[in-house]
């Protein structure tokens, strides 16, 4: 297909999809009328949809919600059936029409509001733009009470968000854990800003070297790496205790690792990690290393108070100025990690005499088996 035909087919496909969504919505309403969910022993329509069609619970709830909304809004349903608007636009219109079902708003004004939003949707405004317009409708219908209504609506929205806050995680068996989360938008804004600080080009270049990151907007990969940094560097002493102990992960490795032998270590959770990762984590906040012999006896346990104080870090920065790797690395001290010259698990103390500043990149390298910090 040429460019013109491709564009027409995509637009036509969108219209057909809208019509199918409307047909599906009417069918779902008919299923409720016939009480098919009850006959099948399902607790609600969304569950029946999930069993009948094989879609996820999330998709089933979305379809059931749209069906209920379109049943009460004939003009919006008709426009969707004709493919004039998308199901996403129809849902936004229905949501805001639901907010207008109030004794202060006459049936005539509700109809005018639906007509207005429909016209804007047909005119090309997407769901986000329609949502903004829907919020503005109240300012016209009830100028005096608009602020109070908005405040109450936001309060109710935030309460719903808190109740729906979720996080799920699952290990894929390939060294990655995948997850989904739902958190209040205000908290997400703060979290995003924290991750942006860790994923900022300046910080990434300091860790991975010049030329490693030349984009101003962090990519999904950079944000994921920043999330990992955020977890690994969070001070567990700031967390509530679990079983009388702070939420600190214990990394367990055989004594052979001290001798430079390549051998897997593991976390207390059973997750296996490489010796390089073990040695790297042993220097970071939130991880306590445990060295064990062949009989699984603990030979040395990293002490809990091993973090450098702000005063110690400032003193080290003032004295060393930059990364002390012998390759000549000049990453500023304030972007460096404070490394224990004498490993903490071997009795090293947290003081300036045994503290060396290394940038994140070289800090990782010096923990690799056989690496000599006097060589690049």
UniProtKB/TrEMBL annotation:
Highest taxon in the source lineage: Bacteria
Which InterPro entries does the entry link to? HNH_nuc
Single GO MF descriptor: endonuclease activity
Q: Sorted alphabetically, which CDD domains does this protein's record hold?
A: HNHc (cd00085)
Ordered alphabetically, the record's keywords are: Endonuclease, Hydrolase, Nuclease
Q: What is this protein called?
A: HNH endonuclease
Q: Identify the species of origin.
A: Nocardioides plantarum
């Amino acid at each position: 297909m040429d460019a013109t035909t491709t564009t027409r087919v995509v637009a036509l496909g969108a219209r057909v999809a809208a019509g199918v969504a409307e047909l599906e919505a009417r069918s779902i309403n008919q299923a409720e009328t016939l009480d098919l969910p009850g006959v099948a022993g399902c607790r609600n329509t969304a569950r029946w949809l999930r069993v009948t069609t094989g879609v996820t619970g999330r998709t089933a709830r979305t379809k059931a919600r749209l069906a209920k909304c379109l049943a009460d809004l004939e003009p919006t349903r008709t426009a969707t059936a004709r493919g004039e608007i998308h199901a996403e636009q129809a849902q936004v219109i229905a949501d805001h029409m639901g907010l207008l079902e109030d004794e202060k708003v006459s049936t005539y004004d509700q109809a005018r509001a639906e007509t207005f939003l429909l016209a804007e949707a047909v005119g090309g405004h997407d769901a986000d733009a329609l949502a903004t317009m829907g919020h503005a409708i109240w300012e016209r219908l009830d100028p005096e009470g608009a602020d109070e209504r908005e405040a109450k609506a936001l309060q109710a929205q935030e309460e719903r968000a808190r109740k729906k806050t979720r996080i799920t995680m699952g290990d894929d068996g390939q060294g990655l854990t995948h997850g989904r989360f739902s958190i209040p938008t205000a908290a997400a804004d703060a979290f995003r800003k924290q991750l942006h600080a860790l994923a900022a080009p300046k910080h990434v270049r300091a860790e991975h070297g010049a030329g490693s990151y030349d984009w101003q907007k962090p990519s999904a990969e950079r944000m994921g790496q920043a999330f990992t940094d955020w977890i690994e560097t969070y001070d567990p002493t700031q967390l509530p205790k679990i079983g009388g102990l702070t939420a600190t992960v214990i990394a367990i490795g055989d004594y052979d690792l001290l001798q430079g032998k390549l051998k897997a270590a593991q976390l207390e959770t059973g997750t296996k990690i490489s010796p390089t990762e073990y040695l790297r984590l042993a220097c970071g906040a939130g991880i306590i290393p445990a060295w064990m012999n062949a009989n699984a006896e603990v030979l040395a346990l990293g002490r809990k108070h091993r973090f450098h104080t702000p005063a110690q870090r400032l003193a080290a920065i003032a004295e060393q100025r930059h990364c002390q790797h012998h390759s000549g690395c000049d990453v500023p001290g304030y972007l460096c990690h404070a490394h224990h010259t004498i490993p903490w698990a071997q009795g090293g103390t947290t003081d300036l005499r045994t503290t060396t500043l290394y940038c994140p990149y070289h800090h990782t390298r010096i923990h690799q088996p056989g690496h000599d910090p006097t060589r690049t």
